[in-house]
Amino acid sequence: MTGFDEAAKGAKMDFASDMSYGDYLGLDAILSAQRPLSEAHDEMLFIVQHQTSELWMRLAIHELQEARRVMLLGDLQPAFKMLSRVARIFEQLNAAWDVLRTMTPSEYTAFRPSLGNSSGFQSHQYRLVEYLLGNRNEALLTVHKHKAASFKALAAELALPSLYQVAIDLVCTRVGVAPLAGTPSNTDWQAVQAVQDLWQKVYEDPKEHWELYELAEKLVDLEDYFRRWRFNHVTTVERIIGFKRGTGGTSGVAYLRRMLEVELFPELWHVRGAL
User: Fold this and answer.
1) Which class does domain 39-119+161-274 fall in?
2) Between 20 and 30 A from 234 (CA), which of 11, 192, 206, 223?
3) 225 CB contacts (<8 Å, ≥6 apart)?
4) What letters, b where the CB count within 10 A reaches 16 and e where it falls short, cover 36-68?
5) Cα–Cα distances in Å, from 158 out to 138, 141, 162?
6) Backbone phi, then psi, for 273, in 5-degree steps?
7) CB 11 within 8 A of CB 72
8) CA dihedral (108, 37, 124, 252) positive or negative
């Protein structure tokens, strides 16, 4: 113990009247929020996996909202770091599926009835991330009507331009064309030719439009990690429940596979074939 005492010499040991690590992080509230409803050992894994995912998404929302704010001011350099950070957040979310995949179908079945109709489909933060980025299926607002604060936050987001719309407007301004009204589409996920043509001007002359070129690649990088997260979600669900319906009533794997077709920034992917 002598070595420990020497190494810890000078460390504060009494926190009766001062803020500690646990106080600052609110660990009492966080670590008491895991309340399994069954006796199944693996329910704790399921809860922690989803709670930590929600915490990462909270940070992603924080970063995306600020990135949009500075982009509206025309200040792209800070936005680049924030978009890179969001991409790394989705890398963390992606890696978390590896932990959940250690759970077998038998282990999940032991506590699945405890979930009732609760489902990740009802995550208002995930929906807010999608709305922020530009995938704005307004019909899905209905899912959140039972939570006034969540519904209000999502409705407020829909009243603002998405981050992708702000990016498109920036390209219009800096390339010197009139703003493109009504683009991109919120729900059909198809590339709009006029938007693709704008990005093509950027990619054909990156030296002239270096900041826009970098912005485009930051967005592609972010969506790349986002797609990987979606793909691993599908494979994890299929590995654990096969083709059963989801607890929230969706078709499960079939629904998630459909979501793999959704492109957040379709023009940035389609332009590659036009260069």
Assistant:
1) mainly alpha
2) 192
3) 87, 88, 90, 91, 94
4) eeeebebbebbbeeeeebeebbeebbebbeebb
5) 8, 10, 8
6) -75, -10
7) no
8) positive
The Cα angle at residue 188 between residues 185 and 193, in degrees rounded to 5: 55
Please give the Cα distance from 262 to 182 (Å, whole number): 19
Residue among 115, 52, 148 nearest 249 (CA) = 115
Taken in order 241, 252, 119, 33, the sign of the CA dihedral is positive
Residue 184: is the preceding peptide bond cis (ω within 30°)?
Answer: yes
Q: Is the pLDDT of residue 8 over 60?
A: yes
Mean pLDDT of 67-89: 97
8 Å CB contact between 198 and 265: no
Predicted TM-score (pTM) of this structure: 0.91
At 30 the pLDDT is: 97
Q: What is the pLDDT of residue 256?
A: 84
CB 243 within 8 A of CB 252: yes
CB atoms closer than 10 angstroms to residue 156: 11
Measured between alpha carbons, how far is 275 from 203 in angstroms, rounded to an integer? 8
Task: Please give the Cα distance from 104 to 40 (Å, whole number).
Answer: 12
> For residues 272 and 275, what is the distance between their CA atoms, to the nearest angstrom?
6
